[in-house]
Amino acid sequence: MNDMTPTREQREAKLEGMGCKRKRVEDIRFTQGRGQYVDDVKLPGMLHGDFVRSPYAHARVKSINTEKALKVPGVLAVITAETLKTVNLAWMPTLAGDVQMVLADGKVLFQNQEVAFVVATDRYTADDGINAVEVEYEQLEPQIDPFTAMDPGAPVLREDLTGKNTGAHGPRKHHNHIFEWTVGDKDLTDAAFRKADVTIKEMISYHRTHPSPLETCQSLCSFDKIKGELTIYGTFQAPHVVRTVVALIAKIPEHKIHVIAPDIGGGFGNKVGVYPGYVCSAVASIVTGKPVKWVEDRIENLTSTSFARDYHMTTEIAATKEGKVTGLRVHVLADHGAFDACADPSKWPAGFMNIVTGSYDFPVAHLAVDGVYTNKAPGGVAYRCSFRVTEAAYCIERAMDILAQKLGMDPAELRLKNFIKAEQFPYQSALGWEYDSGDYHTAMKQMMEKVDYAGLRKEQAEKREAFRRGETREIMGLGVSFFTEIVGAGPSKNCDILGIAMFDSCEIRLHPTGSGVARVGTKSQGQGHETTWAQIIATEIGIPADDITVEEGNTDTAPYGLGTYGSRSTPVAGAAIAMAARKIKAKAQMIAAYKLEVHEDDLEWDIDGFRVKGLPEKVLGMKDICWIAYNAPPPGMEPGLEAVSYYDPPNMTYPFGAYLCVMDIDVDTGVYKVRRFYALDDCGTRINPMIIEGQVHGGLTEAFAIAMGQEIRYDDTGNVMSGSFMDFFIPTAVETPKWETDFTVTPSPHHPIGAKGVGESPNVGGVPCFSNAVNDAFSFLGSTHIQMPHDYWRNWQAAKALGVVG
Ligand code: CDP
Considering only Cβ atoms within 10 Å of each terminal Cβ, which end of the chain, N or C, has fewer? Predict the structure, then answer.
């Protein structure tokens, strides 16, 4: 080795592979305003479409008069349900096996429902056209409260389902009932409750909220009549699924559909569903022969595209007097709005709600979920969560605190007593999941040590005494939460969307000079895939991450994949990337063996190439192998160096974490201050620690928003009360607390690189942590459970109800 020969550390550093805090390569364009979003795409002759929407939550549409609108200069077409019927698209299938009106067909079922689509030369003219459309409504009694939706006298919402006693998920009990889903052993669970020393029961609601990404939902469709081809630019988290669904519904051959999801400004589940805007812009393009763009505004986004949560969970725990849990019983009333458009894998009408046993060793459990229709917007998306995991984590984490309170035990101690132990993994849960790996005790103890949990409890006890003595009007809460996520949908035997199996894919093509391109079936919406996918490849095959271009989102070039949501990208596509890289490495090894004139088994991998075992000077680097693969491959070997992998994971991955929140609340004003927030996450092997930290910061900020104020609220008539950012809480840098992050590493045993997902974990663990802090603060005043969101007003109301303010 001479002085110029790079050291092992230098060679490794050059790769910027896994474990490196590589800077996000996509940020070069994002921070310079050079991103290419749907609204940046402008096609020649492009028209603009916008919706006439219903002011009422429940009404009969007696007539729609489009005459005046069509006379507005620049308005080219007004599409109604009658137009859509001519192409059999007045209703569309939902992801949950229901059907949904694309445009009002005789009735409207929620405020701001799409009634007609006006197509014009520009957006302003489309708006003039909207104002000229005359719709005659007859108001009907709205059903807003999910708790009375199944009353005998409740109004019939879905007249199209009259006489249908069975839905996509079995029998329907009432005209507003969608499904009942049960999991677990009811008899054994009931028996555990009969034998229990202690039981708790609480109705724990997770209110309706909305993902509200920075960029709203949008599409631009262009139908080429000559070629019979449809090109769709859209804000799609799963472009390939969109292509297949369009092919099936619109009967256009799949190879004649080109779906392109360019840069996306946040998704959080909002961009998984299929919305009337997508369908109408496609039909409008077919009708007019011109490209048609649809861009939602903020109010439309908040009030009509997919909401999240709205789960009302009656939760019971049975336990011994020493605090060992013996049974869990949960009934969920799920408000799905006007259509069941939940974005869950087909077999899971309540998503992965059956992860509700959480991180605890419940011997028996039973879960029942009833879905009901109401006059609210449809949806039920996994807002930064893996199919209802957030609801499940909130439910169990609140319930564990309530049990601790009843037992007079410390909430952290109760958790430590009931955790699944490290040696129990792989662990079979009472509700049917096989947890792949975990070390909960270590994580919890690390959290307790780092924050000085004992010291904080002591301080809290002193503050409570001071409050009782009247020396302060401030109360202190310690929120503990420990969550287990389930991410990486999924094994195709368990998970599909409309029959499309849930796997993912990667194609890597290396070029002769030693750089390459990786095309992946996922679609980043800000998570930094262009950065991290290249890091996996860099470590696997020794090509620097900077020399790998990552492409996603174009169905013409990327291999078929199921997209990005539910933190599935790393568990599924991340594995496909590693497997494709390993196929390349296997071919590279054959090439190296031939060139170095040894048997393949005599070679070993060394950072960025192969070396002959025992002969450190006999090496062949990957860059050279790339050249040889194209220009001088071994006799009989095909030239080229590329591989594709379709990965169907054997199981989900189960990230987990231990969080703590310290909060002070002024009882006279309800004003709270998050004094400290500590988040320990375990996502197995960490690909990019900086990106993970960013994901955790983002997820915690959303969790903070949801727990402390963010809500889609309706009045009794079905008016949306929080339809703009004036009323819908989006924390800015001013309100957002400072985050302290930490980690442990428990690799997934079945994932090729041991990685688990992380993007959603902080939302899953964060919401119960904030809520537990508020509830813990009030608990010494006699309160058991205060419903979210915990804004100032509700905190003040809680203090008033407890008699501590006049
Ligand atoms: O599916 P989605 O991309 O939303 O979530 P994810 O798989 O949890 O990944 C979010 C981001 O964190 C990606 O850029 C991942 O590569 C990165 N990540 C990581 O660096 N290490 C992990 N163990 C998990 C995710």
Answer: C
